[in-house]
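lol forgot to send this yesterday, sorry. struct tokens for the thing we talked abt
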């Protein structure tokens, strides 16, 4: 147990599906898991452990942003001996061809953040996800006839729709880095996984973009991401 997680060590599976939203974790457990139990509710960061097609899986929320993800990912890997975390969530699309609810696989992520420097005295701003987990996701997507956008994503310290000038941020990104989407948690997850010799991946659904007039509603963000959720779960089998 930790100050942030009341679960016992044996309550957490060695693979964790990690949405940001606690209510999305609840939704996934209720819809997809059998024999599930609520194993953490500290700060309402719900964690459920159950079975998916015979595989023991934990679904746990991360909260929003790298600091929150950093706490939960570190503790899951270090204290609970979790081997693999697959983040699932929403993102802003950066490509014109991306449509609402298209699925993004982050092969690596770039961040201006000092997260790695503060945590580990490492001036790192670009970090890869796990190639082996990505390969499982890609193969499962092909099997399910799901189109994936694969590439570098940007991990931000703030919600990009609230940025005063997104273009100035884009202009600061090194020219050899071409983000296909933006979100707020993956860099912390990938970096901690690398630091602790663990595995991490990140799947996201596009919920907004400067190229898309409509924006996903709160209900759609919570419950309209089933294709991505099922892809993540099936990739764990």
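and heres what i got for the seq, position by position
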């Amino acid at each position: 147990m930790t100050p942030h997680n009341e679960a016992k060590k044996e309550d957490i599976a060695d693979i964790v599906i990690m949405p940001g939203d606690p209510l999305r974790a609840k939704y996934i457990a209720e819809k997809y898991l059998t024999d599930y139990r609520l194993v953490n509710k500290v700060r309402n960061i719900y964690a459920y452990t159950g079975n998916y097609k015979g595989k023991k899986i934990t679904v746990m929320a991360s909260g929003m942003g790298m600091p929150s993800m950093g706490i939960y990912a570190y503790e899951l890997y270090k204290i609970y001996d979790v081997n693999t975390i697959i983040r699932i969530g929403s993102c802003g699309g950066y490509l014109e061809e991306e449509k609402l609810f298209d699925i993004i696989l982050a092969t690596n992520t770039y961040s201006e953040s000092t997260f790695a420097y503060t945590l580990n005295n490492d001036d790192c701003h670009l970090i890869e996800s796990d190639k082996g987990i990505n390969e499982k996701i890609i193969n499962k997507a092909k099997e399910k006839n799901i189109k994936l956008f694969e590439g570098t994503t940007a991990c931000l310290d703030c919600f990009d729709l609230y940025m005063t000038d997104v273009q100035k941020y884009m202009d600061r990104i090194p020219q050899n880095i071409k983000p296909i989407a933006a979100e707020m948690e993956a860099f912390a997850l990938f970096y901690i996984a690398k630091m602790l010799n663990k595995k991490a991946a990140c799947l996201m659904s596009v919920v907004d973009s400067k190229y898309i007039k409509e924006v996903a509603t709160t209900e759609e963000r919570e419950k309209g991401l089933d294709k991505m959720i099922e892809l993540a779960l099936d990739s764990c089998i």
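The mean pLDDT is 94. anyway ping me if u want another try
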